[in-house]
Input
Amino acid sequence: MNKYIPDALDRRIIAHLRLDGRASLSKLAEALGVARGTVQKRLDRLTDTGTLLGFTIRVREDQDDRTVRAVMMIEVVGRSTTQVVRKLRGIAEIAALHTTNGAWDLIADIRADSLADFDRVLREIRVIEGVSNSETSLMLSSIS
Output
């Protein structure tokens, strides 16, 4: 099975959906300057190929003051990145995981319900075999 690679129109549709996941087909078609049927076919293909995994809502960060948010920079020893990533993906509080360059190998976006949960997550990550160092910063407030 060939992996589907979104083209420019697909990427524009995705960009519009990131801003407004509830946008109607008509609204998307008008904004993109294409027919409604084109948008429907593209959305169907993006969903069928797994490019779009679903549609969700976003809540303003200041509306959920119970969530502890942080970014954790992680250094991985040797060639164990694949195994470390596999373990990190099993931690529900990691909302996103990114590779990076420089001193750190991975960046984890952590969201926990409480400081106790946050502390537990940090301990879980630090004992993963292959994690040699980490630095964590709490997100205090959003500017934009």
Q: What stands out?
A: The beta strands are 68-76, 94-99, 106-112, 131-138.
